[in-house]
Amino acid sequence: MEEQKGAAEAESLLEDLGFDSLPIKVEQFINAVSDNSFPINIEFHGFSADQFLGKAVGSDEGAAIIVNSNIPDSRRLNFTAAHEAGHVCMHIMQGVSQNFACGDSELRDYFKNPLERQANGFASGLLMPKRLVKSITDGDINWYNIKQISDKCDTSLEAAFRRLSWLEKAPVAMVIHQNKQFKRFVSTKHFDFYIQQTNLSNEQMASCTNAIHEGFPSDFDSVDPIDWVTPEHKGMHLSELYASSILLNEGFIYTILSYDDDCLEDTDVDD
């Protein structure tokens, strides 16, 4: 998996360079990697939102990273800088390619481009290295733990969810709505059921925790799977599903879906 390759490379570099506390500052990391034989500069400049998020350019003599300082979310900006650092360390320094411009088109083609996936994995491993993140939480994938990682590592909730769910290898998914309207979802390879891409019902909205005022919960509700997923897959029936929804700014609702072995029933019948 390309993301795992990127994360492993970042974690190896952090250990070699002696980074042993959070948060990892991208500019400090770049300064540590840079030397006289291969100088690396990182700069932040304002561009229109549709131009690009970040760039990494270089040669066999050095490299430069340019990050769009107009990215409105500071944590997304931080992840973008770490992503471009991944291009420098894994691709430019290794002679794979010398010019990367990352924007909306690259995001759309993300799964078709192994280099972009490697850079994303690098950013995840750089900002949230396994050996340091593991000490922050008890390992359970819930909003409280995700929030701890997000705050400590200066990353978005989605990035923290992706990292924690990959480290724990659990059957979980995150579904994103805005003002009840379905936007998208993120699921792990361990989550076997098709997610319904539907808008939220009034009942589902009522079960949300207002994270802005009430904090981030660690508990889940037991819900009818049919409200969220197609509960049949390869001879298995999902009889129960766990859900935890939070309401954030701008009407965004993030929901974690999870299940365990007790939720599964075998529907195959032997003759």
Explain what this protein looks like in three dimensions:
This protein has 271 residues and is α+β, with helices and mostly antiparallel strands. It folds into two domains: 132 residues, Arc Repressor Mutant, subunit A (Orthogonal Bundle); 98 residues. Helices cover 36% and strands 24% of the residues. Strand 2 and strand 3 form a beta hairpin. It comes from Idiomarina fontislapidosi.
Distance from N terminus to C terminus (CA atoms, Å) equals 39 Å
What is the count of helical runs?
Answer: 10
List the helices and strands in order.
HHEEEHEHHHHHEEHEHEEEEEE
Radius of gyration over C-alpha positions, nearest whole angstrom: 20 Å
Shape: elongated
Helix content: 25-40%
CATH topology of the largest domain: Arc Repressor Mutant, subunit A
Mean pLDDT across all amino acids: 93
CATH architecture assignment of the largest domain? Orthogonal Bundle
Please identify the top-level CATH class of the largest domain: Mainly Alpha
Strand content: 15-25%
Structural class: alpha+beta
Low-confidence stretches: none
Number of strands: 13
Largest sheet: 6 strands, mixed
State the domain count. 2
Give a summary of the structure in a few sentences.
The protein is α+β, with helices and mostly antiparallel strands and about 270 residues long.
Pick out its properties.
single chain; 271 residues; alpha+beta; Arc Repressor Mutant, subunit A; four-stranded mixed sheet; 10 helices; 13 strands; elongated
